[in-house]
Amino acid sequence: MGSTSSTLSKIPNAEELSQETGFTSAHLARLFERFEALDKDKKGYLSPQDFEAIKELALNPICDRIIGAFFSSGQEMLDFSSFVRILAHFRPIDNNRPKEPNSPDPINSRINKLKFAFQLYDQDKDGKISRNELLQVLRAMLEKQVTEEQLESIADRTIQEADLDRDDAISFEEFRKSLEKVNIDHKMSIRFLR
Amino acid sequence: PGRQSGSLRAPNPGKQTLLWLVEVVKPFSLLLFLFLVFHFSQRFTTVVPESCVLIILGLVLGGIVLIANKKQLYQLDPGLFFLFLLPTIVGDAGYFMPARFCLYGAKMAGVIDDNVEAGLMEFLLFGALISAVDPVAVLAVFEEVHVNEMLFIIVFGESLLNDAVTVVLYKVYISFVEVGPGNVLTADYFKGVASFLIVSIGGTLVGLIFAVILAFITRFTKKVRIIEPLFVFLLVYLAYLTAELFSLSAILSMTFCGIGCNKYVEANISQKSRTTVKYTMKTLASIAETIIFIFLGISAVDKSKWAWDTGLVSCTLIFIFVFRAMGVVGQTWILNKFRLIPLEKIDQVVMSYGGLRGAVAFALVVLLDGEQVKAKDYFVATTIVVVFFTVMFQGLTIKPLVKWLKVPRSTNRKPTINEEIHERAFDHILAAVEDIAGLSGYHHWRDKWEQFDKNYLSKLLMRKSVYCKSELWEAYQKINIRDAISVIDQGGNILTSARLSLPSMASRTSFPEVTNVTNYLRENGSGVCLDLQVIDTNPGAKVEEETETHHFLAGNLYKPRRRYQSPYSRHFMTLGDQERQDREVFQRNMRNRLESFKSTHYKRHKKDRSQKKARSHHRLSHLRLLLTPRVKPTKSQLKGELSEPEKDEDVGITFVARKAAETPKERPKSVPAALEVCQSPSVAPPSPTCGEKNLPWKEGIGALPPCVSVEATKIIPIDLQQAWNQSISSLESLASPPVPQEPQHPRVSALHRLSVPPRPPVPPPPSRAKFQFPAWKDEEEEGTLSQQHREMQPLMPSLRPPPPPPPPSSAQSSGKRRNPCVYLRSLVTTPPSGSMPHSRGPTQL
After folding, report:
1. What is the pLDDT of residue A166?
2. One GO cellular component from the entry (chain B) (predicted)?
3. Number of independent structural domains in chain B
4. What's this model's pTM, rounded to 2 decimal places?
């Protein structure tokens, strides 16, 4: 495909990126187009404002969290490779891909998917979801449907349920355990178009 | 089975008697077998699917009738089948289909594996009807196999769609056959395809329209709860009939009606109606299924109806198998290109193996016109064989096959609140990521749909009150109730120790250091709580022994009175239009739990009563206070309150509730004297037996710790509130005599008594009065009372924002404090209702 290869040529170190993230070059080309479309001022990177400009995203109750997750390193710029790396979390886990024993966990592994979700809750990055952090997310997701008390009792209950070491917070380990029976691959994957 | 009239004209008297016997025996045997099958289904149907048993039963029955009469009397009547039996089953399945997955089912559209056998139109016709996977058979077998949800939906969805296909093809071919093969033009084939589209899409549309109508109607049935289930049944059935009327796919119509309306109707109708709908549908469906399979068996015996042709039969069987497999493999291959999670080989095997033919095919083949289709008899025979083969052989073997292939089974596990929350978050995340990545995938569209649903559909179709409710909150409550019930079930056995562990929690055997409920409650304040965890103390051996004695006494000594009471309260409940039974079971269990809790908790021997009195009474009064739901008493309730007899438990104990407003004169005369003596301290000095009531575990009856916070009551819908009141009332006044003239909220009355101000002035407006302090009238107990008063004060502010006595200390903050135990809150906010399974029912004596 002519367009694919021409786009690919614009992507810096496309090869490695493809290796690392598991995206095919067609995927990468498509994502690069998207990246450029989001990057309105042709800065070469994305800023949080670029994300906020996405109409559909604005409707999402936890959009600020998600945008925050893209800029988790604290800087205001997101270049294409980081963009792709983050999106790679949501690639379905592929079973038939040969596993290289020495390679680290692929980005889209179960644990990494969970980590991504976990950091959305854990805003202060202390490795724990505190009651307050949980409450904030709940509040965002439930909007005005429930009262504050209800929210609190849900949060309490949630923490109580997951909290194994009784420190009133959910650590990542506890988070993982509480979702042990959930098919994360199923729930945290999207089908990237070619 | 209404065609028995001719049966009495049997040739000879002996036969006639036999026949008559069969006539009589039939319904009974049906019943018996229904019973047997369902009763033993646990053990038996692990090996043999129910449908097989039923067909065999049908064969036996048919054989008997045939021997008796030489002629088959009963047959699966297509009219009966299509009008009554099929809809019930499909309706049930459609209504309870997990709507989220219906997308997958729809994706399977058009899995038609026509095994066109010959060029002849008649064979085409036969191929059309025999190739259809039968929803009934699929349901019957797959439900028992418990394959995972997705697989089930794919196969079932396919069978539903096949109905459309079958009906269309059947009609098309019938018309072709009528016209004659030579006269069929190519345009007619296109017409056939077009009509297939019309039939399926039209059926779906009809279903959706009826779904909207139904949801809209139920929005306005608040005043007439009784007819709610009726509406559901009628409209779903109407969807079926309407579609049938326009020769659209009735099954599709019904399924989509069920799927479409489920969400809104469930939200609109009352809990009772929900249960009614659920059980009636399931019952009807299982009856219809049973009848279908039995009739299938019976009809097969009739030799006059069919003619055997080995070649045709074996060819059909082979073709069915091969084509099905080919169809499945080919189509999943296409489908997998679009699916996130591809269908595995194993799934494909199950899918092709699960192609069961059933009564639909049979009914259609019987419907064939023998004049037009000369080979009808052969077709009938082949159909029967195919149906039997697929249902019996495949049905029998599919279970081992599924096990052997290790197909992921469906789990009946209910999601925990964590999963509930996180999955919701995942959905949002995925939708957002799709937006960011510029894809409009499944989540994108689902989000769009949810927006639309929230903004328009729900507003239109749901009641205001329900519309505002949050699903997550509901889920939370459900989980809580489930926990509470299982806790009660676990601990319902009185003699077990007070150990608890909640199933949904990670193993946690005891709750740390909460030994004093009072302190605990005070600490947590209105955060509400009483948590079953609190009960989870570790009693010493001696205490435990003591507890057992107490329970033994408690359980036995007061039986008569309880028994006397329960019918009364049941009646009482019916007045209030509330579900009584479950609540009663719950209360009793709860009471037992709490009794045991208390007796272990206070660690006192029953003999040192006086000591006990002084101490336990404080705690109890706290509990009691917390217990009181903040409900604004109405005028009538106010009155009722006055007439309510005293609680029996506080004879020797200064109890808050007793202090105020003793109105012995108003006590109903109907109360048996003996009871009155026991229960009303103001009327008579406590009789010797009354002393027993002072035992702490006796008081426990009244002082159920779950405390309702203001907010908890706020959020309960009115009817639930009422229910709560009543349940609490019976909890509290368990041993109190019946009060006929006070039908509602006795609990409120107790509450209100608390609120009667000590000083003469007129009772303050209810809202203000709610948590005022009770009047302390009892001079002799003045000392303890004031102490009690003091002790209670810290609690008050958190209970009610403007406290009559200013809060002494830090209690204000308690409301917001983290409260690890919220279980009982759920009990409080949603009284267990009819849908809850209760394994243990002390009430059902």
Report:
1. 78
2. plasma membrane
3. 3
4. 0.53
| Min distance A57 CA to chain B CA atoms (Å) | 6
Q: Tokens representing B142?
A: 């797959």
Those residues with Cβ within 8 angstroms of residue B622's Cβ, 6 or more apart along the chain or in another chain:
B517, B518, B521, B522, B791, B792, B795
Centre a 10 Å sphere on the Cβ of residue B501 and count the other Cβ atoms it contains: 16
Q: Which residue has the tokens 């072709």?
A: B176
- pLDDT tens, residue by residue, B426-454: 877 877 777 777 766 666 777 777 777 77
**Same domain flag for B102 and B215:** yes
pLDDT of res. B357: 72
B85 and B208 belong to one structural domain: yes
Closest CA to A22 of A123, A121, A105, A125: A105
Complex ipTM tops 0.90: no
Choose from A46, A112, A153, A164 for mutation: most chain B CBs within 10 A. A153
Contact at CB, B438 and A51, closer than 8 angstroms: no
* Domains of chain A, CATH where assigned: 14-187 (1.10.238.10)
Contact list in A for residue B445 (CB cut-off 8 A) is none
CB contact under 8 A, B422 and A178: yes
Q: Which residue has the tokens 């199923």?
A: A186
Domain boundaries, position B52: 13-68
B216 occurs within a structural domain: yes
Does residue B407 carry a pLDDT above 70? no
Q: In this structure, what token pair is assigned to residue B436?
A: 């960011």
Chain A residues with CB under 8 Å of B340 CB are 92, 186, 189-191
Among B200, B205, B194, smallest CA distance to B163 is for B200
Nearest-by-Cβ selection for B340 from A70, A92, A149: A92
Across the A/B interface, how many CB contacts are shorter than 8 Å? Answer: 169
Alpha-carbon distances, residue B535 vs B317, B406, B622 (angstroms):
64, 43, 16
Q: What is the arithmetic mean of pLDDT over B619-648?
A: 41
Q: Give pLDDT, residue B835.
A: 40
Question: Which of chain B's residues have a Cβ under 8 Å away from the Cβ of A168?
Answer: 818, 820
Query: Which chain A residue lies closest to B413 (C-alpha atoms)?
Result: A181
Say if B446 falls within a structural domain: yes
Note whether B40 and B170 are same-domain residues: no
Strand partners, B709: none
Residues of chain A scoring pLDDT < 70: 1-12, 72-74, 94-105, 143-145, 191-194
Residues in A closer than 8 angstroms to B455, CB to CB, are none
Contact A161 B709 (CB under 8 A): no
Q: Which residue has the higher pLDDT, B231 or B729?
A: B231
pLDDT for residue B824 is more than 60: no
